């Protein structure tokens, strides 16, 4: 069953604390030496890379780079920016391990460790407490009564969803351990609107439908339930891969407050039957579910239908919205990243258009952020290795992966992407995208993220890295040695912040 695979994947996100799976072996001579993590540069676009401090290795308040204990065990991070240009990031320590969170008030040049948003869930009788699985993060677009933008961090307990709210810029969090109206859940996402509204989406394990719950009191209670898969596409209910949740919050958009939930699925009832019984599950349709009534009801719009045998169910299809209300869908077929766009609230779509090029011959796990009208940043893990018909799970140890950053400043009018390598090598070899069912390395987990400052337009990326480094900005965490490079012992969350080039605002 599709559901059981995804459920087990979440159960097995504990590798930030315990080594989990078989690891790839680096090719001879390929182990990185202790050297600086230089900024990536290409035609004026540049990035600086460093590691973050995490619990329980460093106390709350540590700022990186600059401290001696700037290391962590976390992976699979998320990031957002508030209207004032502050970045907030989170990353998971795995189910039961709690969530790390950080804030940057200087455009992503430094990040300060915040208190754990969900560790107090250990005091709640919610089954799999505390949280720490599948984290996501949102920031309100409008200030609250105290003059701050609410920050929301969601994480998975499987029994339910932890939603932690900060009204004081991340200094303290209040936990709601029952953010899901349908209990027993997997892979939640979160998005915010106005000063107090926040919505979560997730798979419920019972049906594997995509549920969307909304709160109008800053996450204190969730009272509204909608279903993203509409009545015309019920064959997708138990044969889909959920993507993220986004809300159009721009005051200049004609579609303000529209909610978008993306997913990929099989194409028909016949394909659903094959998927659920014997497989394979080829999620060759990319969808965006659109709600114009605040999340109560959704209508599904087809973004792209791939040919038979194609699957876009590789973590994860992604949706973002620019200030003019243009909607962007980003997805990977396990070898290339594509985007489509809609200028009419998701009703019709243009594309697909290929994003990756050159040294990113294989590109996976995309995430996007949209800025001013037609301006779009997309990130993905990429390698120069390419083998048609071979999944990245089975790539050889010679495949060197980096974080790539692609920017298009005319994404709705025929513009092209400028691609930049934004990080040093962050992994070698196979990359598992199939949960615990694969035999490859899972150190990069399932997703990472990018945000852009509305003040400067510049991007900050949080990503997973399993390489041994020993520099002032990226010291090795306890247990990470040169021989343990490319294993979960060295897995950590790092940052690549844009220091040069053009922004998207």
Q: In a few lines, what is going on in this structure?
A:
By secondary structure, the protein is mainly β.
What do you see in this structure?
There is one protein chain. The protein is globular, with a radius of gyration of 20 Å. A hairpin with a 6-residue loop joins strand 5 and strand 6. Helix content is 4%, strand content 37%. It has 505 residues and is mainly beta. It has one domain: Neuraminidase (6 Propeller). Strands 1-2-31-30-29 form a 5-stranded antiparallel sheet, with no helix packed on it. Strands 3-7-6-5-4 form a 5-stranded antiparallel sheet, with no helix packed on it. Strands 24, 25, 26, 27 and 28 form a 5-stranded antiparallel sheet that branches. The longest helix has 10 residues, at 2-11. It has 2 helices and 31 strands. It starts with a helix and ends in a 5-residue tail after the last strand. It has helices at 2-11, 269-277, and strands at 40-42, 45-51, 63-64, 75-81, 87-92, 99-104, 111-113, 133-139, 151-156, 161-166, 174-176, 185-193, 197-204, 210-215, 224-227, 240-247, 259-265, 285-291, 299-305, 318-321, 327-332, 337-342, 350-354, 362-370, 376-383, 400-408, 418-421, 427-428, 449-452, 459-465, 492-500.
Radius of gyration: 20 Å
User: Which structural class do the helices and strands define?
Assistant: mainly beta
Indicate the overall shape.
globular
Oligomeric composition of the shown chains = single chain
* Low-pLDDT segments, ≥5 res: 1-36, 122-129
How many helical stretches? 2
Q: Would you state the CATH class?
A: Mainly Beta
User: At CATH's second level, what is the architecture?
Assistant: 6 Propeller
CATH topology: Neuraminidase
Measured as a percent range, the helix fraction is under 10%
Strand count, sense and closure of the main sheet? 5 strands, antiparallel
- Strand fraction band? 35-45%
Average per-residue pLDDT, rounded, comes to 89
Strand order, main sheet: write it out: 1-2-31-30-29
DSSP strand count? 31
Termini separation: 43 Å
**How many domain modules?**
1
